[in-house]
């Protein structure tokens, strides 16, 4: 039995991705897509997309950095009241923010282009693979001029395309597995079971079965949308605070 995780429907709405490595040099971003990009050969164009809700830089407040990859940096943050209404009325939480943001490392070759692709991927999942990934809300773009004129505002003024997701939880399966109390902590969070002890084989089996059932369900959803994740690992499964089920993250190219 999968505890606390219910289907969200077949089409429309929810996604995420924290970018990881994916190769590729500088590519053109001058076109817009209506369907999935085809294979890239040589220096073929990677399109610029307009995916999800369009926010402004001043709609968000960056609270703290929570991760960093080869091509991007991830933050926890919050939306102001007007932007929350645009984002579906999302509310803040005790963790210090209600959104997750990612900006590209523009000093890394190909990072800006991969961010454009990631925006497209998340928009596609938000329409066609609801509930499989953490919910993608939209994006905003900081120009080089804006970044220069507002550099005293810190990370939130950094240049590039910023992607925005609903904050759904702050612990991945990898973090639960590395915790000293595993599987006790995960049993309580995922299965709402208490009184377990470390090394309990029956509980570890129950956790494995529940996690794999949720993972396979999520993969089936994105595969039916014609997409492939390409980096399935415990670090890319986040346990949601509300539904108490695992969702996929990191849809980077």
Describe this entry's structure for a reader.
This protein is of the alpha+beta class. The chain is built from six helices and eight strands; from the N terminus they run βββαβαβαβαααββ. The strands form two sheets. A six-stranded mixed sheet has the order 1-5-6-4-3-2. Strands 7-8 form a two-stranded antiparallel sheet. The two termini are 33 Å apart.
Strand order of the largest sheet: 1-5-6-4-3-2
Catalogue the unreliable spans. Answer: 6-50, 92-96
Question: What is the tally of helical segments?
Answer: 6
Look at the helices and sheets and give the structural class: alpha+beta
- Count of β-strands: 8
Order of helices and strands: EEEHEHEHEHHHEE
Radius of gyration over C-alpha positions, nearest whole angstrom: 18 Å
| Strand proportion | 15-25%
Helix content: 25-40%
- Tell me about the largest β-sheet: 6 strands, mixed
Would you tell me the overall average pLDDT? 78
| Distance N to C terminus | 33 Å
Shape descriptor reads globular
């Amino acid at each position: 039995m999968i505890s606390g995780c219910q289907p969200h429907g077949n089409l429309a709405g929810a996604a995420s991705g924290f970018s990881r490595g994916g190769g590729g040099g500088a590519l053109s971003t001058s076109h817009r897509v209506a369907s999935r990009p085809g294979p890239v050969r040589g220096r073929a164009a990677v399109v610029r997309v307009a995916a999800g809700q369009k926010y402004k830089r001043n709609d968000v407040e960056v609270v703290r950095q929570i991760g960093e990859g080869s091509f991007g940096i991830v933050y926890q943050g919050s939306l102001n009241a007007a932007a929350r209404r645009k984002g579906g009325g999302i509310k803040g939480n005790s963790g210090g923010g209600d959104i997750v943001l990612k900006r590209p490392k523009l000093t890394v070759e190909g990072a800006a282009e991969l961010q454009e692709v990631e925006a497209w991927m998340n928009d596609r999942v938000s329409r066609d693979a609801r509930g499989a990934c953490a919910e993608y809300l939209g994006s905003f773009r900081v120009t080089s001029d804006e970044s220069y004129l507002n550099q005293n505002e810190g990370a939130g003024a950094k240049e590039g395309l910023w992607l925005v997701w609903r904050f759904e939880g702050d612990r991945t399966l990898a973090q639960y597995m590395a915790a000293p109390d595993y599987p006790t902590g995960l049993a309580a969070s995922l299965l709402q079971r208490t009184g377990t002890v470390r090394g309990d084989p029956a509980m570890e089996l129950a956790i494995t079965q529940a996690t794999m059932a949720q993972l396979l369900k999520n993969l089936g959803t994105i595969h039916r949308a014609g997409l492939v994740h390409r980096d399935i690992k415990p670090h890319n499964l986040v346990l949601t605070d509300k539904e108490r089920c695992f969702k996929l993250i990191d849809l980077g190219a």
